Amino acid sequence: QVQLVESGGGLVQPGGSLRLSCAASGIIFSTYRMGWYRQAPGKQREAVAVITSGGSTNYADSVKGRFTISRDNVKNTVYLQMNSLKPEDTAVYYCNARSVSARYDYWGQGTQVTVSS
Fold it and tell me: What's residue 100's pLDDT?
């Protein structure tokens, strides 16, 4: 079955960095669009960054210049490098895998990121 397993979350001070990883199995990883989404308490889930199968990327305005999404099609893993973290980045971060046709859409279990002094 399909599994998306996130790791790398935690507590970090404002201005700090974290790197999230999402290891995928059960899909032909290289053909899927991969994305990171987040959901803060009391708010709707929002897209943070996506990377297509071809490597094109797109970011939410709130994270442009601070976050970088990348993928390793050999390790079947997508990463989110988060720099200059702010308290408003605090949320549960979810990994998403979406097929080209959007027929198949999978989610990880989420990893907590807390930015606080």
Answer: 85
